[in-house]
Amino acid sequence: MSDLELDPQVLCADHKDNASLIDYKNDIQYRIDWTRENRRKESQQEIDEIKDKQEYDQIDWNDFCIVETVEYQQIEAATASENFPLPVTVEELGKRLTQQLRYEEFGDAGLRQELADEKKIQEDEDRRLEALAEAEAEQNFARETAQQLMEEEQAQEQD
């Protein structure tokens, strides 16, 4: 027997049969393996960071020098900012990636299909916005009508 003795009833309060004991053992073993792997990864990451720092420290920054300075004239600087494209939003990037994937997979037919899909999505969105606008107009009309009826009732009561 070991130095540590546990009451089996306490140890297995939730595990009444052998099948649940096996599951319990498997869960414990999985957790132990996960912890070992996690510690191994952390130590490897620390070692890599130390190596990177050592390599960085070994660089002799005095070996670097300025080779050439590029100077832009005012005209070039102004036109350069006009020639560069605007920054890409996340949505645009997603669309471009989708287009590229469809083109790679289906060729021109994929691009035509994507344009058709985008058109359909836009039409659906337009219809949804129109329905919302109509519903809002109906609600406004109902409110105005109710308000007029209340005002007429109040006027009749005063007479």
Q: Could you characterize the architecture of this molecule?
A:
The structure is a single chain. This protein is mainly α and 159 residues long. The chain folds into two domains: 9-55; 88-158. It contains five helices and no strands. α4 crosses α5 (108-158). The longest helix is centred in the last third of the chain and has 51 residues, at 108-158. It is extended and about 95 Å long. The model has no long low-confidence stretch (mean pLDDT 81).
Concise structural overview:
This protein is mainly alpha-helical. It has two domains: 9-55; 88-158.
Given the C-alpha coordinates, what overall shape results?
A: extended
Structural class: mainly alpha
What percentage of residues falls in helices of 4 or more residues?
Answer: over 70%
Parts with pLDDT < 50 across at least 5 consecutive residues? none
Number of helices: 5
Query: What percentage of amino acids are in beta strands?
Result: under 5%
Mean pLDDT equals 81
End-to-end gap: 103 Å
User: What is the tally of beta strands?
Assistant: 0
Order of helical and strand elements: HHHHH
Q: Which helices and strands occur, and which strands form pairs?
A:
Elements (H helix, E strand, L loop, with lengths): L7 H4 L6 H40 L16 H10 L6 H17 L1 H51 L1
